[in-house]
Amino acid sequence: QMPGTARHDREMAIQAKRNLSKTTDPVERLRLQCLARGSAGIKGLGRVFRIMDDDNSRTLDFKEFVKGLNDYAMMIDKEEAQEIFRIFDKDGSGTIDFEEFLVTLRPPMSNARKEIIMQAFRKLDKTGDGVITIEDLRGVYNAKHHPKYQNGDWTEDQVFRAFLDNFDSPYDKDGKVTTEEFMNYYAGVSASIDTDVYFIIMMKNAWKL
């Protein structure tokens, strides 16, 4: 975990669980259920949907949508699922675009927060191709300080891989982190931090920006 994020993650999950009992808005309830699993919760749901999207249409019909929610163990009854689906199926086509769905589900962030997240992403993305890989990290992140490297448990590459896995989703760790995954992760962290100023300071410290 990055400095400071583990604690924020826990705080955010606790906060989300607390707010769940207070809200009746179905989309907000789904958002909070995801966040109750930590910063990667929304991204994890996205991965479940992607796996279900057999024909690569990047859309889901209602049956797939419900199956995805069940596979991800979301506590949602059929009526609530129908209501959420209707909200996202704006044109009434019977399918929803899941990228759009995930963006809407993500806690809203100010431009100031998005900008500092992108600064961190660009710093890590040494090759500038829009994806962070082990190759990129070799140039920015010193694995030799990692306790598991020091005691001989892990190689340098294993340290890098574990680092990338923080931002990757729990079901499909491919060792590559896209802008979207990085944003999704920090949207989760961001939800636990009240002010932009504090969020920006945390990011600057964590990434030495």
TrEMBL record:
What InterPro entries does the annotation carry? Ca-bind, EF-hand-dom_pair, EF_Hand_1_Ca_BS, EF_hand_dom
Q: Which GO terms describe its molecular function?
A: calcium ion binding
Q: Which Pfam families match?
A: EF-hand_7 (PF13499)
Gene3D superfamilies in alphabetical order: EF-hand
Annotated signal sequence is: none
Keywords, A to Z, come to: Calcium, Metal-binding, Repeat
Q: Which intervals hold domain EF-hand? A: 40-75, 76-111, 112-147
Looking up PANTHER family in the UniProt record yields: CALCYPHOSIN, CALCYPHOSINE LIKE
What name goes with this protein?
A: CAPSL protein
